[in-house]
Write a structure and sequence with these properties.
Layout: H1 7-12, H2 15-20, E1 22-26, E2 29-33, H3 36-41, E3 48-53, H4 64-67, H5 71-75, H6 94-111, E4 112-122, H7 127-136, E5 140-148, E6 163-170, E7 186-188, H8 203-209, E8 218-221, H9 228-235, E9 239-244, H10 247-270
Parallel strand pairs: 2-9, 3-4, 3-8, 5-7, 8-9
Antiparallel strand pairs: 1-2, 4-6, 5-6
The protein binds S-adenosylmethionine.
């Protein structure tokens, strides 16, 4: 059952917004279609235990001209006939990207409970902007984890760009006695095979990362893409709300999560 049909959406969203927003969902998960900043502004305060997300990095080049290319041109080596849909929000310059992040991270802070955790994926080029933005948005910056992608194009005379990162933070103090175990700081997973999103994260990576949330908590991913964080969250026993603005990915992500969770349920039932 979608959150919209339970009391949960009443907890999260104010009345007017709830009526108009396109969304899809199932038991314990919802993906909303629209701009995350507008939608987060319609959320009640203090309703999430974690924000775990992977925003457009607005990266992919040393100059602004290079960064203004499409997401396929920047991040994919697929031939044009096999190209996946491009996604929105990836062509900002560093200054406007930092301001935009400060805005949405401020809103993300408001919708979280005290002690909630923030995890935001990023590359080396934009990490300094992100650390500024999250601290300006009143999060306490706590560290940086490494996603080692292992395979990556070698470049003569240069270090391999083989890792991405996630900066993590908390809303105020983070008690050491939270019921969360000791988690690693480096995660080694190759890029997903047969991906449906240009910059899709490996599902197992996200299943590991969501463990930072208190057990059974509610996780928000304002940049849901192919729904990897939403899917990982539900598979690990959390409740999840995703937001996605690009039409194609709203549809692809919602269908993928629904299909994968139905399959998981069927497998459980046949055991
Ligand atoms: C880096 S991708 C996320 C990929 C995702 N982690 C996955 O594994 O599929 C970022 C996503 O944020 C979406 N996006 C960009 N701007 C947005 C906005 N203002 N509101 C909601 N979604 C947005 C893009 O369409 C894109 O799909």
């Amino acid at each position: 059952m979608p959150l919209s049909k339970t009391n949960e959406l009443n907890l999260i969203m104010n009345e007017n917004a709830k009526l108009t927003v396109e969304h899809s969902g199932g038991d314990g998960w919802t993906i909303l279609h629209g701009d995350m900043l507008n939608l987060m502004r319609s959320f009640e305060s203090g309703v999430f235990d974690a924000v775990i997300t992977d925003p457009p990095y607005a990266s992919g080049g040393a100059s602004q001209t290079a960064k203004n290319r499409t997401t396929n041109q920047k991040y994919s080596s697929m031939s044009p006939d096999k190209a996946l849909p491009d996604f929105a929000g990836d062509q900002k310059d560093q200054r406007s990207w930092t301001n935009w992040c400060t805005e949405w991270l401020t809103e993300a802070n408001r919708v979280c409970k005290p002690g909630a955790v923030l995890v935001v994926f990023i590359d080396w080029r934009m990490a300094p902007c992100l650390s500024d933005a999250l601290q300006r948005a009143d999060w306490i910056w706590r560290g940086q984890i490494v996603w080692d992608k292992q395979t990556c194009r070698p470049q003569r005379g240069r270090f391999r760009q083989q890792s991405e990162y996630a900066l993590w933070a908390s809303k105020g103090p983070l008690p050491v006695d939270r019921p969360v175990g000791c988690l690693p700081g480096v995660f080694r997973y190759t890029n997903p095979a047969n991906r449906i999103h240009v910059t899709e994260k490996p599902l197992q990576l996200m299943r590991d990362v969501v463990q930072i949330c208190v057990p059974g908590g509610r996780i928000l991913d304002p940049f849901a893409g192919a729904g990897t964080t939403v899917l990982a969250s539900v598979l690990e026993g959390y409740e999840a709300v995703g937001i996605e603005v690009t039409d194609a990915y709203y549809k692809l992500g919602s269908d993928r999560v629904r299909f994968a969770l139905n399959e998981a349920t069927e497998q459980k039932e046949t055991k």
